[in-house]
Amino acid sequence: MFLLIREKKKKKKKKKKKKKKKKKKKKKKKKKKKKKKKKKKKKKKKKKKKKKKKKKKKKKKKKKKKKKKKKKKKKKKKKKKKKKKKKKKKKKKKKKKKKKRKKKRKKKKRDPSLPEIHGAADPQAALPAEAYLVGLFEDTNLCAIHAKRVTIMPKDIQLARRIRGERA
């Protein structure tokens, strides 16, 4: 009998504890809203005091430096004009030297083992190997191959230059 009475008393105590927890949560939410309003008022007072002190110090230092720089710039401009005239004469001489070098390199590229072109503007310029030429001109009959010499018709001089990689 004693065991049955103890079990009934424990069940009644659990119901009372649940009701007390719900009331405490509602009170905490109301207190948080009041704290936010107090923080905004303190920040506005600090910003106004700092701006007034900085503006007065910067204006006095800038006026003294500007007057000294203007006198130095006028003397430098006269010296620069004389130097530009000397540089232009040197550039013209360099361009003439580059043109002479390009003409010498083209003559050295000729190989005696490669076939020659006859009927083109440059008869000494080299074409690719014979096997490559046969595949290009089999259908059109533009050229006839005899041993290592290639004969091209006078109408097709521009086509011969394109194969070599030159500008037609």
TrEMBL record:
**BP terms from Gene Ontology:** nucleosome assembly
> Where do the segments described as Disordered lie?
1-125
- Return one GO MF term: protein heterodimerization activity
Q: Where is the composition biased (Basic residues)?
A: 7-110
Q: What is this protein called?
A: Core Histone H2A/H2B/H3 domain-containing protein
Q: Where is the signal peptide?
A: none
InterPro entries xrefs: H1/H5, H2A/H2B/H3, Histone-fold, Histone_H3/CENP-A
The record's SUPFAM superfamilies line, in alphabetical order, gives: Histone-fold (SSF47113)
Into which family does the record put it? Belongs to the histone H3 family.
* Cellular-component GO terms for this entry: nucleosome
Give the matching SMART domains.
H3
Residue stretches making up the Core Histone H2A/H2B/H3 domain? 129-163
